[in-house]
Amino acid sequence: MSSPALTRADIARHAAFEFVLTTTLLFVVVSLVRWLGHPASPLSIANPSALFAVAGALVAVLIAGLMYSPLGHRSGGHMHPGVTLFVWLGGGLPGAAVVPYVVAQLAGSIAGAGLARLVWGPAVTQVGYAAVGSGLGDVGLFLAESLPVAAIFVVVSFFLPRPETARFVPVVIGVGVGLTIAFLASVSGASVNPARQLGPALFAGQTHGLWIYLTAPVVAPLVVALVLRAVRRSVSPSQV
């Protein structure tokens, strides 16, 4: 599969869309934690299981909505470096766009968390900018952050080949992330996206395990994409 032709102007414009989308994602996520997790909030949910279930459902809708939005439709709505690598290895994005996309996503992570602080004030600081943490060891945390992402992309791979099912990929990703938050947030924090953790962690000064939160969710889709490529080559070597 050949990647789509994009000019430098196209790549710059699409990277700008990724910045806006990721900024929006982080602003809303930090805002959700501010309103649902701050003890003084009138919307606070005291029960952790209920909090994570509600947060997971809302984030699922948020991710799918951003991917289906006009900007998401034009750039692909990745908002995740691992997604960008997965799409690139699958032939859906030229290599020249990978670095601009990833830089835009990480910059959007910082901008979104900072914007939430400007809008909501000290309450955001009091919930740690929504940075997540875990009591797991490095190996346990790496597995908890990578395996759910790998599972999501395995499922996504079954939806991508046909246009009639590919249109449901945003729903698959949204639901997958939402379920991960609902069931694993109390264990690993369930960031599952470097752009979800980077900005909040930098503002909160929470660097413990940050390298895992930044790498594990990228390694997982990278491995899935390479395995899929190897399978395609073994099945149809003439089509490579």
Summarize this structure as a short list of keywords or feature phrases.
single chain; 240 residues; mainly alpha; Glycerol uptake facilitator protein; globular
CATH superfamily caption:
Glycerol uptake facilitator protein
Envelope shape: globular
CATH topology: Glycerol uptake facilitator protein
Low-pLDDT windows of residues: none
Q: Can you tell me the number of structural domains? A: 1
Helix content: over 70%
Q: Tell me the structural class.
A: mainly alpha
Radius of gyration: 18 Å
Count of separate DSSP helical elements: 11
How many strand units? 0
Mean pLDDT: 95
The profile of the biggest β sheet is: none
CA(first)-CA(last) distance: 7 Å
Portion of residues in beta strands equals under 5%
